[in-house]
Amino acid sequence: MNTNLLTHLQVQALPPRSHAFLVPAQRIGSRKFTTKRRAFCLQLCNKNFGYGSGIRSSVTRGVDEVEEEDGQKEKQPVAKRAYPFHKIEPKWQRYWEENRTFRTPDEIDTSKPKFYVLDMFPYPSGAGLHVGHPLGYTATDILARFKRMQGYNVLHPMGWDAFGLPAEQYAIETGTHPKITTLRNINRFRSQLKSLGFSYDWDREISTTEPNYYKWTQWIFLQLLKRGLAYQAEVPVNWCPALGTVLANEEVVDGVSERGGHPVIRKPMRQWMLKITAYADRLLEDLDDLDWPESVKEMQRNWIGRSEGAEMEFCVLDSDGREREIKVTVFTTRPDTIFGATYLVVAPEHCLLSSLVSTAQSKYVEEYKDLASRKSDLERTELQKEKTGVFTGCYARNPANGEAIPIWVADYVLGSYGTGAIMAVPGHDTRDHEFALKYDIPIRCVVAPDDKSLSDSGKAFSGQGTIINSSNSTLGLDINGLCSKEAASKVIEWVEKTGNGKKKVNYKLRDWLFARQRYWGEPIPVIFLDGTGETVPLLETELPLTLPELDDFTPTGTGEPPLSKAVSWVKTTDPSSGKAAKRETSTMPQWAGSCWYYLRFMDPNNSKELVDKEKERYWSPVDVYVGGAEHAVLHLLYSRFWHKVLYDIGVVSTKEPFQCVINQGLILGEVQYMAFRDLEGNFISAEFADMLGESNQERIPEEKVVKSGDSFVLKENPKIRLLARAHKMSKSRGNVVNPDDVVSEYGADSLRLYEMFMGPLRDSKTWNTSGIEGVHRFLGRTWRLIVGSPSPDGTFKDGTVAVDEEPTLEQLRSLHRCIAKVTEEIEGTRFNTGISAMMEFLNAAYKWDKHPRLIIEAFVLLLSPYAPHMAEELWLRLGHSTSLTYEPLPKANPDYLRDSTIVLPVQINGKTRGTIQVEEACTEEDAFKLASEDEKLSKYLVGKSIKKKIYVPGKILNVILDRQNVEVGVR
Ligand code: ANZ
């Protein structure tokens, strides 16, 4: 097994020598999910609360009679059914649907606070929901339900990001229209989501593929165009000559097409671009105030990549050393190193390259350009890749020292960044150093490190330091002795004065390539006039421009998008001039629809505006946005960009769309245990396996494994350590868990609870079937605590065991501690520890003889955000006739939270013999009882005749024994 290719979680600590075949947990961002933590989770589940794997409770065994729709009774084994969730869950889902319980009406009381909680809406793939989806969805659902009960107006919608490549590829292969596939997938996703009891307002459901939605995506495009933020440019795309089509990046693997393995080249084509770079500074600055994971903010900052430096001009020389008219402008972030620039490099696509090349070198340069055109920017800039280049045959003058330095072409310089040309300083830049060594170019040291041990390391010193070898008295430029920062400022000042350059800020961020040569996307609402080719935007009244029906989705072979096959759609006239024209045949990228959908949810049926201003002002921004870390950069950046444009034109009232973003962790497949065999076929411990090289690996079933310390070992031979790891769920690995199966076996509430109990929301975690049995058992115990034990035939009586009596102090304390903890944990999005608090409550409640209604009702309400189906059913059984969705959430009373037990000294005949732990308000009778039960004190009290008890509450208990006892007792 090639572990290098795997994304997997190592859940076993092995000695360092075995690291060769282990991939550390960090690889999948699960740093915090250590063996200890997982063990702790399971322990919580198994030991403390008795909800782990092991022997199932008797009520969960046997056979349950299930009334089928047609009235027939079917015998079903219910080995794992701890309570009748199979009847409860569909019933409440139907109730919610029929009563539109979670509808957020258009007209709401806006004096109430609002809470907008949003999931990153899914792409409805053919595979249906994955257990990874409900992780984030359950978290947001708990928040939505919790906030409703706190009196907030809650917006909790769901929709579909439904344009995209898979539906189109499927159409090419099968001829099924993407609309049909998409609809089928949406229906499947919707019913799966409904089966999990999520409290979405389905009246607000949207799909990016619906014309009344993409009308507004097109409208936004027109606004961008109007403001010069959308433009056309020749941009390199992935062109596959054999397939006759442009490919998306994800369709190109290692330079060949994913389908068929044909070569793919980069070819310039006319494309639509969006000027996101105009917003680079604002996108950077406004990150600071967002409540987002620091790592995501950092990724966005790096993506935007602001670099401060200078542009400097280098005169090009002819072969006699005379200055030519041409100048090469470079971008550098290290003007302080100018005296160390011993060559220049221009990118293979640099516009001046052809005028720089000498006749002798032109053949080599052309060959090199061709080679570079086949590589992606990523391949070109990979640090470990060997640098290549070709001398152009001409020179430039270093403006600082007047030296003639060679100009090279090399693909480690990108045409798309800075000016596409650099001054190479091999003494202080690692890539330049490697290149100079390879091609024998002088290396000059001009920065001395402050830490002398770094000098003369034989490598480039790329840090800041003190400038040396950098003075030119003729030009009056002397930066020797200055620190890098001062030297950089002085050089910039000097180039600005001499007219050789200027200060410059550059961004890594590129304008957004906003066109795809695809069918299944939003049509771009522009036309081109015949003859002149002039671009004319559609009138807003012409929107939506709907996609034409097409039967043939195959590539045209010419590079023209498939829409060009819709001839009668393409041919049109410009309504204002009456001139013949053609429609744009490229469509928008999949990112477009997801850029602004959160706004449409606020007002999904508005046909006049993208969103009503008042509604937007009320609901903006999204308070909590939960989704996968894979969208940390592009989706969030593109949405923020559009949002800022919409802010500038007065459509939205906030500068940022998402106040708080949470990335849920990955759910990995079940842990797999691997044993190793030596060449003779005997088991060997995992730490020795790498010494044997290609040892045989064998998967060991869980029941043959035990935990020993931090490791897992073979039960039959504990000396044999195993390798335990979890892989990302994938079809090919066969470790995908289907939520539908879990729901039918354990119920939706168990799945919800389990996904929350697996560990902190943000961490990666491994799936574990015994864990789900644990939470299922917790729900079963909750059910039986409140409903009572089942009759011998397994059925439960109506109603509950709740009594209409005043709760005791102890009961109130347990409840309020639970309320306080659950509330605090939900507010802090620590859903797993909220469950632990409820488990503790349940354990305490099982010890009570009676269960007062007040306590039980409050607990049911508290449980409801997590396990809404069961909670609704219990609420009904408690005598309520409507859903508990909008019931006020119980509040913790601080009076019951204080720890009021004290240590009471106990004296026997005036002599202190021990202490007992009692409630402050404890009665004399209870204090005496406790003392008699105390290990140390009982010998003085049990079986003795008592003359008198002197009890001062909170202070002391003194027991006076009869005389005759004293003698016995003291002796
Ligand atoms: C001279 C120099 C000396 C540089 C030195 C670095 C260290 P960031 O920070 O990423 O903006 N560079 C400029 N344009 C480039 C391009 N199109 N392709 C590849 N490299 C390019 O990096 C800026 C630095 O990357 C620039 O500063 C330039 O090399 C290089 F000791 O100039 B430097």
How many E strands?
42
Named once each, the bound ligands are:
ligand ANZ
**Head-to-tail CA distance between termini:** 75 Å
Shape: globular
Helix vs. strand class: alpha+beta
Structural write-up:
The chain starts with 7 loop residues before the first strand and ends with a helix. The protein has 971 residues and is an alpha+beta fold. Helix 23 runs antiparallel to helix 24 and helix 23 packs parallel to helix 25. It has 29 helices and 42 strands. The structure holds ligand ANZ.
What are its keywords?
971 residues, seven-stranded mixed beta sheet, 32% helix, disordered N terminus, disordered C terminus, binds ligand ANZ
Secondary-structure blueprint of this entry?
Layout: E1 8-10, H1 35-48, E2 63-67, E3 73-77, H2 85-99, E4 114-119, H3 133-149, E5 153-155, E6 159-160, H4 165-174, H5 178-194, E7 206-207, H6 211-226, E8 230-240, E9 245-247, E10 252-253, E11 256-257, E12 265-274, H7 280-285, H8 294-304, E13 306-317, E14 323-332, E15 343-346, H9 353-356, H10 359-372, H11 377-381, E16 389-397, E17 404-410, E18 421-424, H12 430-439, E19 447-449, E20 465-467, E21 471-472, E22 477-478, H13 484-498, E23 501-507, E24 512-513, E25 526-529, E26 535-537, H14 567-570, E27 571-573, E28 580-583, H15 591-594, H16 597-600, H17 613-619, E29 624-628, H18 634-648, E30 661-664, E31 667-668, E32 672-677, E33 683-684, H19 686-689, E34 696-700, E35 705-708, E36 711-714, E37 721-727, H20 739-746, H21 748-757, E38 765-766, H22 769-787, H23 809-827, H24 831-845, H25 853-863, H26 868-877, E39 901-908, E40 911-919, H27 924-933, H28 938-941, E41 946-952, E42 956-961, H29 963-970
Parallel strand pairs: 4-5, 4-29, 6-7, 15-17, 29-30, 31-38, 39-42
Antiparallel strand pairs: 1-37, 2-3, 8-9, 8-12, 10-11, 12-24, 13-14, 13-16, 13-23, 15-18, 16-17, 19-20, 21-22, 25-26, 25-28, 27-28, 32-33, 32-34, 32-37, 35-36, 36-37, 39-40, 41-42
Helix pairs in contact: 2-26, 3-21, 4-5, 20-21, 21-22, 23-24, 23-25, 25-26
The structure holds ligand ANZ.
